[in-house]
Write a structure and sequence with these properties.
Helices cover 53% and strands 18% of the residues. With 245 residues, the chain is an alpha+beta fold. α1 (2-39) packs antiparallel against α2 and α2 (43-73) runs antiparallel to α4. The longest helix has 42 residues, at 87-128.
Length: 245
């Protein structure tokens, strides 16, 4: 009995250390990610980094917290093990392992479904925050009608078929411009069926090619990665410019 008591005391001590290590690891992952974001001075670079890595780092932190909770749970009901026998030690291991798996599946779904809504808000804020020109002036984001005068022909074609979207910022005082490129396929939208930000472009096809005299029609296929909802949207494509090949 005394040896069992000593073993459980040491076990609980190790479990407390492991749980604390899990919490510290989760916090460190989140802080490391934010530190990397703060290191990037260019807003477009921040946008790209957050878009590519934020959900990944957030999920790693969640895993660390789940592990910490499962490890800590192995310190509970130690008195019952001492009074009712060592078989309850293995029962506790089994229960905590099962709860850990359930928590993993639950939070995986939560992160995949709910976190993109927050992420899109953060990305939108980064994308629309006024840029600063090399001369230190606040730049203005051009409207789509103004962009045509600043994009090269290949850029216009990419923008027209939505494979690539461009934001153009201009310093009205000096005329300096900054062109930023955003792949449309990386952008998530709210699904009209389930309401989650899990709707993305699957493919695009030209339904009616544009000419010098008539606008074209682009058929864009969207698919929700959560509920599987699909929808098509028709987008008007601008007439070909006079110097188009």
């Amino acid at each position: 009995m005394e040896s069992t008591s000593t073993f459980l005391a040491q076990w609980d001590q190790y479990m407390f250390i492991g749980a604390a290590a899990g919490v510290v690891t989760g916090i460190f992952i989140l802080l490391y990610h934010e530190f990397k974001v703060l290191q990037l001075k260019d807003l477009k670079a921040k946008y790209d980094y957050v878009n590519q890595h934020e959900i990944q780092y957030f999920w790693y932190a969640v895993i660390a917290f789940i592990a910490a909770g499962a490890i800590y749970a192995n310190t509970l009901a130690t008195g019952k093990i001492l009074s009712d026998g060592s078989r309850w030690f293995y029962v506790r291991l089994f229960i905590t392992a099962g709860l850990g798996v359930i928590a993993y599946i639950f939070f995986y779904s939560m992160v995949r479904i709910y976190y993109p809504r927050y992420l899109e808000k953060r990305l939108t804020k980064l994308r629309n925050t006024p840029r600063i020109s090399p001369d230190g002036n606040i730049m203005r984001k051009l409207s789509e009608s103004e962009e045509e005068h600043h994009l090269e022909e290949v850029m216009r074609k990419q923008g027209e078929i939505h494979t690539v979207d461009y934001d153009i910022w201009i310093d009205d005082k000096t005329g300096a411009t900054k062109i930023e490129k955003y792949p449309a396929y990386e952008h998530a939208e709210e699904c009209s069926e389930c309401g989650y930000y899990t709707m993305r472009i699957g493919e695009e096809e030209i339904e009616q090619a544009p000419t010098a005299n008539e606008e074209g029609v682009l058929l864009t296929h969207y698919e929700c990665s959560y509920c599987g909802h699909r929808e098509q949207r028709e987008i008007k494509v601008a007439k070909l410019s006079a110097n188009a090949v």
